[in-house]
């Protein structure tokens, strides 16, 4: 059995004066708003949390592009684009035990014939015009399909969203040049329909 040394203590002189402590002042009962009301500076955060919770329950989630989340590259779908997905599966596979569908998140919209590749934020600022892919960021937003939607009908995840990766834009651009999926949707059309594609 070991004996512990006593903890050091600060000695206070008995005659030492202590400053007075101010009285506690509490806010008026309704000064902070009603219990269900969101503070003005927290409205956007609360709204995002509510949307995320609805998304986890199987609903759609509309998110702004850019910021800290992602930008998107939109291409035509079809055999050529699926070849790009397969090549990105190979590129993004980190080890032999990794999943065969290792590509970053890709949404397919069969009605419009589009693939929507989720790429790192700020990609749109560096993406020069490209014959086979249009890149969009702020101020657009994107409606994500439910996480469980992995096949048609409707918009679905060709490659599901995973927390550890997005689609790398440089290999994506190179593979689009190689496989040539087309035609790419016009950027103005993309901007007009992005928030309602799901």
Question: What key phrases describe this protein's structure?
Answer:
five-stranded antiparallel β-sheet, 16% strand, 198 residues, elongated, single chain, 5 helices, alpha+beta
Summed up:
Helix content is 25%, strand content 16%. With 198 residues, it is of the alpha+beta class. The chain has a 5-stranded antiparallel β-sheet, with helices on one face.
Structural summary, described in words:
- The chain is an alpha+beta fold and 198 residues long.
- Helix content is 25%, strand content 16%.
- The protein is built from five helices and seven strands; from the N terminus they run H-E-E-H-E-E-H-E-E-E-H-H.
- The strands form two sheets. The chain has a five-stranded antiparallel sheet with strand order 5-2-4-3-7, covered by helices on one side.
- Helix 2 packs antiparallel against helix 4 (169-179).
- It is elongated and about 85 Å long.
Mean pLDDT: 79
Biggest sheet: strand arrangement: 5-2-4-3-7
Q: Which structural category do the helix and sheet elements fall into? A: alpha+beta
DSSP helix fraction = 25-40%
* CA gyration radius, whole angstroms: 26 Å
Task: Count all strands and give the number.
Answer: 7
Ranges with pLDDT <50 over ≥5 residues? none
Tell me the distance between the termini: 68 Å
What's the order of the H and E elements?
HEEHEEHEEEHH
Q: What global shape is seen?
A: elongated
Q: Report the major sheet.
A: 5 strands, antiparallel
- Give the strand content: 15-25%
Helix segment tally: 5
